[in-house]
Amino acid sequence: MSYIIDRRLNSKKKSTVNRQRFLRRYKKHIKDAVEDAVNNRSITDIDKGGNVTIPRRDISEPIFHHGEGGMRTKVFPGNKEFVVGDQFQRPPGGGGGGAGEGKASNQGEGEDEFTFQINQEEFLDFMFDGLELPYLVKKQLKNATQYETRRAGFTNAGSPEKIHIVRSLKAAHARRIALTGKDRKKIRELSKEIELLKQQLPNPETSLQINKLNEEIELLKQRLKRIPFLDDFDIKYNNLVKIPVPSSKAVMFCIMDVSGSMTQSIKDMAKRFFILLYLFLKRNYKQIEVVFVRHHTHAKEVDEQEFFYSRETGGTIVSSALDLSSDIIEKRYSPADWNIYIAQASDGDNWDGDSSKCSKVLHEKILNKVQYFAYVEITTGPHQNLWQEYEKLQSVWAECFAMQQIREPADIFPVFRSLFEKKSEGAA
Predict the structure, then answer these.
(1) In CATH, what is the architecture of 250-420?
(2) Contact of 371 with 339, CB cutoff 8 Å
(3) Domains of the chain by residue range
(4) Which pTM does this prediction carry?
(5) Those residues with Cβ within 8 angstroms of residue 88's Cβ, 6 or more apart along the chain or in another chain
(6) pLDDT for 311-329, tens place per residue?
(7) Residues 123 and 50: beta-carbon distance below 8 Å
(8) How does pLDDT run across 280-309, given as a tens digit for each residue?
């Protein structure tokens, strides 16, 4: 007979430890559920927590139970219908759906889907799990504000809490050896003379010599005792210095087309993409700056509020945004100090002849300064002329240039993940 005793703390209640263990165990299923939630949410609710539903069959767990055979007695509280020895037929297997959707059934069994609540922090953790800015390099800044304390050897002055005991004792021991080496050598030589004299036949002269040598040894030992065990000069202190630390400082340019060819639904998809990007940057990187650029026939740098909610529109000249971004990089973000990233979203429709200019600006002024350039074309039809020009660039700048297409809202999150998923070490 087996006895199973549950000694877990809070075994009958939900605890933080058990919750985290559950989230780790069903990470894949929760990530899929979070992706579905992101695709179906509005722009204002995209970063909130909420209910997550996963199929019940995916969370089945092993259980302890008695094996077949042997003698077992089960007592169920409240049982008034059956007694020991009664037999009853097992219900037939089948799905819980019964006869059909919305209809009652007299057979079948099953289980409902499992729904649970996750907070905003957990939701964002799963939403951005496995993502990073590609090819982020640590660069030394002239006005770095980050410092790291490191050991730089030892010093003879310092505060008591910085005393290095072992080093101090070694210094004291070395000092005593250096100062007493000559006297100790003399003591050993005198001791050998005494031993030689003792081996001779005893006589008054030999005894007198031995006594004289012993007195000399005693004087030497007293002089050795006057040497301090630890002197102020022996005390060594840890030398700690502050040095500037290379900082992974980065800037992200968000370039959005707001021209008249961008319908409201296309603009909404572009905004959803940039909101995901903005949340990802602010959550995962402490030292990150975001530059928002909107453009139609003219481009201008705007703040976050205007970037997402302004209603300004017009014709389409994409090169105006690239020229402005190039000027901002030249004035404020030196490639020697900054990791520069650019994400551009457009429907691909551009003024005749301007797409070739965009390609030229990227090739000559931008791509040789940035770590990564991501272009997203939002269109349900065939690729536009801007995509075709960018394809030529991608063949030359394959390592730092990425292109994706979004056709419907459900494509936004998969495209976002594919653009910013962690690169393997070999790829970097």
Answers:
(1) 3-Layer(aba) Sandwich (3.40)
(2) yes
(3) 14-61+113-127, 160-239, 250-420
(4) 0.55
(5) 82
(6) 888 888 999 999 999 999 9
(7) yes
(8) 888 778 778 899 999 988 999 999 888 888
